[in-house]
Structure formats: structure tokens, C-alpha cells
Design a protein that fits this description.
With about 375 residues, the protein is of the alpha/beta class. The chain has a single domain, classed as 3-Layer(aba) Sandwich (Rossmann fold), CATH 3.40.50.1820. Helix content is about 25%, strand content about 20%. The strands form four sheets. An eight-stranded mixed beta sheet has the order 1-4-6-5-9-10-13-14, sandwiched between helices. The protein has a two-stranded antiparallel ribbon with strand order 2-3. Strands 7-8 form a two-stranded antiparallel ribbon. Helix 6 crosses helix 7. About 5% of the residues have low confidence. GO terms for molecular function: hydrolase activity. This is Alpha/beta-hydrolase. Keywords: Hydrolase, Signal.
């Protein structure tokens, strides 16, 4: 038997990959791919003139584009555009799903992260250690840092180091800019630049990227046809579970956003009141005192907020939804367990039932955009 023949070489390679536990990657949907940068500017650094704060954009065009508006994806903290491609265990991701529906996609790496360069010395970088990723994303049912965490069942694999899926996911976690003012400014500026270049789009944001979506839509409302906010950073005015203390002084954003009547000093002008939770295992909410000021540049943009059953966002996302509604925003809440989808954590778009979730989101876009 000639084991040196091409047939045997290929067969032995397949056997090795299966035995080694390497994730098998599902075929991605065919698309035309290109990339470009937006939002950068030149400044003088210690080693001379350089470009800073630019944002990497990966454009994917389906073989048969049929949708009027493209999708502009904004990732969460420590993530890149790879979030939306194949999942860590090798299944198709949401990018393939939306390409199959005929959408053109713009996948972005936040400024100063991933393929968007960072100038050394500009702000401070931080990263997530293994314990953080396990406790808040992959093995939350073990850590049980909030009541709903015990309901987590959908992460592929063990969620622990040396499991191939976890290792693939953790390898993708990158350094991130710790200066919120700097990173918010850069992301909103780059997002505005992208929309002015490509025209109107639907925003899909995740987590830390949520406030950037509100800020971009506030700046260029005519170019934002809808916002799909996957567990947007919250709740209003305060940190909870992952962080604590005062946060987001403008309610859902760190930087100023347009209210009517206008807000000059958020501490004075955005009078707050605490609304007690009516259900067990949900947080109290901070809302505006009535009459509430309106987020006038967002009121004509349809918004969908998506929340997983087991995520830490399950504790307080309803507060973000109620705050937006009080401020006049047309927002629908897709609370996944109420829709019959159970067991998800914060990275639902990577989990075992990711396609069930995205099909509900796409149904919403058909009805509202």
C-alpha cells in the first residue's frame, strides 16, 4: 500500500484533523470582498507625521444583492469584525446569513483596535484575562455572578481553556482603548465618515458599541435607517454587574447627544428618578423625571434591542428600553426567552442557536425598515 500517494496524504490529514479536535469550518457564503479605511487624520508624533484614528472597513457584497440598505456592523469591547464571520467552533456566522438574504455588509474594526492602527502612547490599553471571559461570557453558569447566569446552555464546547472552541474565541480577544471619551469620539467620527461615503445603512451594534450607534444616528439621522442593538451598553446613568458607579451621564451615552429641550449640563438638566423593579431578579431603573426630554434625532429611526436569557444584560436591558421609549424613540424589545429562544449569554451570535436568533432579527427588518 503506497501511503505516499496524494490520496493517502489527504486521507491521513483528514483523520488527523478529526482526531486533534480542530474545529471543522462550515463553508462561508460566497461574496465579493474589498476593504478600505475611513476617519483617519494626520498628526505629528515623536517619530514624525503619522495617520491616527482611522477605522478598517471590510465590505462584503453578495452574488445577488437584493436589499436596499446595507448593514454596518459595530462590535463590542475587545472584539473585531471577525465576530460576524464564522463562529469559534467553525459554523456559519451572521455575515453568511445576511449575505444569503441579499445584504451588502460593512464589517468594522473599531479605531485603535485590530486592523485599525493604534499610535503607541495615545491613551491606555487594557485587555480581558481568561477568568473574565469565562465568568461573563462562556461559563457564566459556573460563576453565577447574576441570577440568570444559571440558565446558560448555548455556548459551544466547555467554555474553558484548552477546549478548541474556547481557545479560538479567546485568541480573538484584543487590547482596547480604556479612555472612554477618546474611543467614543473616534468611533462616532469614523462611523459618520463611513455613512457619508456609502450612504444610508442599517446599524447593527453589540454591547460596548451600542452608544456609538446612538451617537452616529444622532449626528446623521437621515443616513441611519434602523438600529439593531444587541445588548447595548447600559443601563442608563450607571454601571452594573461588569462595572459599578456612575456612567453614561447623558443616559445612554458618555458624550453629549441631542435632547429637546437641550441639555447643557446633564447633572442639572437630566433630572433623574429611580423606578423600582416589579419583577424578581431585575434591577431598578433610573429614568428621567417627567416631563422627559426627547432624543429628537432618534425618534424617527426604528430600533430593535435584543437581550439573551442568561446574559448579565437580562438583569437591566429593560431599563435601557424604557429609557429610550420615555425619550420618544420607536423601540421594540426582542427579549429572547419571551420569543421562545433560551439559554444564551452575551455572545448570542456565536452560540449554538445563532441562526434562530438572526432569523427573528431579519424578520424585524422586513417589517420596520
Amino acid at each position: 500500500m503506497n501511503f505516499s500517494s496524494p490520496f493517502w496524504r489527504v486521507l491521513l490529514l483528514i483523520v488527523f484533523l478529526l482526531w486533534s479536535g480542530t474545529p471543522c469550518h462550515a463553508a462561508e457564503t460566497f461574496a465579493s470582498r474589498s476593504y478600505f479605511y475611513v476617519g483617519g487624520h494626520y498628526e505629528n508624533a515623536t517619530n514624525g507625521e503619522v495617520m491616527v484614528d482611522q477605522m478598517y472597513v471590510e465590505k462584503l457584497v453578495p452574488i445577488h444583492p437584493t436589499q436596499k440598505y446595507p448593514l454596518f456592523f459595530i462590535t463590542g469591547a475587545a472584539q473585531t469584525a471577525t465576530n460576524w464571520l464564522n463562529t469559534p467552533d467553525g459554523r456559519q456566522g451572521w455575515a453568511s446569513y445576511f449575505l444569503d438574504q441579499g445584504y451588502t455588509l460593512y464589517l468594522t474594526d473599531q479605531p485603535q483596535r485590530g486592523r485599525s492602527p493604534w499610535l503607541p502612547g495615545d491613551g491606555t490599553l487594557s485587555n480581558y484575562n481568561v477568568s473574565f471571559v469565562q465568568n461573563y461570557f462562556t461559563t457564566i453558569q459556573v460563576a453565577k455572578l447574576w441570577p440568570q447566569a444559571s440558565l446558560h446552555t448555548q455556548w459551544p464546547g466547555t467554555g474553558q481553556p484548552y477546549d478548541p472552541t474556547f481557545d479560538t474565541f479567546y485568541a480573538s480577544q484584543l487590547q482596547q482603548q480604556s479612555n472612554l471619551t477618546l474611543t467614543t469620539t473616534n468611533n462616532i467620527h469614523a462611523g459618520i465618515s463611513l455613512l457619508k461615503l456609502i450612504g444610508s445603512a442599517i446599524l447593527i451594534t453589540h454591547s460596548h458599541g451600542g452608544p456609538y450607534g446612538w451617537g452616529i444616528a444622532d449626528a446623521v439621522p437621515s443616513l441611519v435607517k434602523g438600529i439593531i442593538a444587541i445588548e447595548p451598553e447600559g443601563p442608563p446613568f450607571m454601571g452594573m454587574i461588569v462595572a459599578s458607579g456612575k456612567a453614561r451621564p447623558y443616559g445612554v451615552t458618555t458624550l453629549p447627544i441631542t435632547y429637546d429641550p437641550p441639555v447643557t449640563d446633564p447633572v442639572v438638566d437630566l433630572a433623574q428618578e429611580t423606578v423600582k423593579s416589579m419583577r424578581e431578579n431585575l434591577s431598578d431603573c433610573i429614568q428621567q423625571q417627567e416631563p422627559a426630554r426627547k432624543l429628537v434625532n432618534l425618534i424617527d429611526i426604528p430600533v430593535l434591542v435584543v437581550t439573551s436569557e442568561a446574559s448579565y444584560h437580562a438583569v437591566y436591558d429593560y431599563c435601557t428600553v424604557e429609557y429610550l421609549r420615555q425619550a420618544g424613540v420607536e423601540v421594540e424589545w426582542l427579549n429572547l426567552p419571551a420569543a421562545g429562544i433560551h439559554g444564551n449569554a452575551h455572545f448570542s451570535f456565536m452560540e449554538l442557536n445563532n441562526m434562530e436568533i438572526v432569523s427573528l432579527i431579519e424578520d424585524w427588518t422586513w417589517k420596520h425598515i
